[in-house]
Write a structure and sequence with these properties.
Structural class: alpha+beta
Largest sheet: 11 strands, antiparallel
Radius of gyration: 21 Å
Mean pLDDT: 92
CATH architecture of the largest domain: Sandwich
Number of strands: 15
Distance between the termini: 35 Å
Order of helices and strands: EHEHEHEHEEEEEHEEEEEEH
CATH superfamily of the largest domain: Probable inorganic polyphosphate/atp-NAD kinase, domain 2
CATH topology of the largest domain: Tumour Suppressor Smad4
Shape: globular
Low-confidence stretches: none
């Protein structure tokens, strides 16, 4: 089902930092600006990289303002970075990925046919692919012994706990809605969305979860106990995580980009976020085609 013809008045562009592709990307950005002008877009903004490549032809993005469309030019890392700029006021805003990177699993467009397909998008010939996010809080006792929030982060793929580059066993105590799930003795622990099930979690033996099945995947990294396998939880549950007091710190990483050092006395809560990431897709129900094309999933050699 197509959307009604959209009115994209305010657009933001994010570009990855790859000097070897700067020339071809700059040429594409110039064509994109011409396209936007032709279609009556009133305001176009860019991140620092985009503004630099276009020699200040457009102003810098103010991520506190609402945008109708955010475009990520690069790979999946660019889209993950762009996703973290979402605000509550962006709940109706759309995200579009253009793959100038390597895998581009989340991207919808490729440079060769991008402008042709942009015409379709501006005519409303697209679907909206809504992806759930995870929200993680870190709670720490202050000098008065009261718990206070010291960190909040949102993940499209996963929240990972471990020791950075060190392989070291840790006891991860997990509760779901304050009821004990298990204590994972492992090198790390992954809390993944369905989108993230094809990322880090997949590389440590986790299942692939279709993105329309909203859920939270818990997957240990190199568990000491063979019976500790991945488990899929309801997104309506709140997960509470505490740690073995013998360690000095635990590294928390969100989507491979945001890092926070958690103290062993801290507590972490993880749950499905109320906000969503809304990606533009040209065709409906093509997730399995993407798996086959970009990951050679189930393909015969």
């Amino acid at each position: 089902m197509n959307q009604k013809k959209p009115n994209f008045r305010r657009i933001a562009i994010y570009t990855h930092n790859k000097p070897d592709k700067e020339k071809v990307e700059t040429e594409f950005l110039e064509k994109l600006l011409v396209f936007f002008k032709k279609h009556g877009v009133k305001e176009v903004y860019g991140d620092v990289r985009t503004v630099s490549m276009l020699k200040n032809k457009i102003p810098l993005i103010d991520d506190d303002k609402k945008h109708d469309l955010k475009i990520g030019i690069g790979g999946d890392g660019t889209l993950l970075k762009m996703m973290r700029t979402l605000q509550k006021k962006d709940k109706e805003g759309l995200l579009l990925g253009l793959n100038f990177g390597t895998l581009g699993f989340l991207s919808e467009l490729v440079p060769k046919t991008a402008l042709e397909n942009m015409e379709k998008i501006f005519q409303g010939e697209f679907q909206i692919d809504t992806r759930m996010l995870l929200k993680a809080f870190v709670w720490r006792k202050n000098a008065r012994g009261e718990k206070e929030k010291v960190f909040r982060g949102y993940a499209l793929n996963e929240v990972v706990f471990g020791h950075g580059g060190l392989a070291r066993l840790t006891n991860f105590h997990v509760k779901v809605n304050r009821r004990v799930l298990s204590t994972y003795r492992s090198d790390g622990l992954i809390f993944s969305t369905p989108t993230g099930s094809t990322a880090y979690s997949l590389s440590v033996g986790g299942p692939i979860i279709s993105p329309n099945i909203h859920s939270i995947l818990v997957n240990p990294v190199a568990p000491h106990t063979l019976s500790h396998r991945p488990i899929i939880l309801s997104p309506k549950r709140v997960i509470h995580l505490s740690f073995d007091g013998r360690v000095d710190f635990i590294s928390m990483t969100i989507d491979g980009q945001i890092h926070f050092s958690v103290k062993p006395t801290d507590e972490v809560s993880i749950q499905a976020a109320t906000r969503r990431a809304r990606f533009i897709r040209l065709k409906e129900s093509h997730y399995f085609k993407t798996l086959r094309n970009k990951m050679a999933w189930g393909e015969k050699k």
